[in-house]
Amino acid sequence: MKRIINLLFFTGTLLLILFMNTNKDKDITAIKAVLTEQQTCWNNGDIDGFMQGYWNSPKLQFRSNKNEPTSGWKATLERYKKNYPTKESMGELKFETLNIELFANNTLSKIEGKWELIRKTDNPKGKFWLELHRFGGDKWVIVKDSTISF
What gap in Å lies between CA 109 and CA 26, rounded to an integer? Predict the structure, then answer.
């Protein structure tokens, strides 16, 4: 009987680990899709579409080393539109994800990555650190963005 209980415990633990890894892979794929969609929108000159990857909340936080911190989705949208008024000024955006970590029962993710803009007149580059939250279902959004240029 003890042997059967141990076998059931082992089987249950193994199934739980497999289930958790499957959900982790699914979440990482969904998180990468947010960045891919943002990149596509940016490269199409669609700042409004790009902003769909951000949490539409006054609590959204955006920081860069060139400007004062921005709080709120609307203020972040206005900042992007002011700094990138044309498709030409936006250039072509490329992201490279360096690290993705999942926390808090897969409802919080932290990402580190590199970004690059390719434009006719210059080629700015930098790094970013994002915090994403999953709000119900499978929708992940950026709640904190810290971006630097170098």
Answer: 13
pLDDT, tens digit, for every residue of 75-103? 999 999 999 999 999 999 999 999 999 99
| Residue 115 contacts residue 126 (beta carbons within 8 Å) | yes
Q: What is the Cα–Cα distance from 15 to 60, expressed in whole angstroms?
A: 37
Total domains present in the chain: 1
Do the beta carbons of residue 41 and residue 49 sit within 8 Å? yes
CATH number at residue 46: 3.10.450.50
The two most distant CA atoms of the chain are separated, in Å, by 75
Reference 76, options 10, 28, 31, 142; nearest CA is: 142
Cross-strand bridge partners of residue 96: 114
Contact assessment for residue 39 and residue 48, using Cβ atoms and an 8 Å cutoff:
no
Domain coverage including residue 19: 2-149
Stated pTM of the model: 0.84
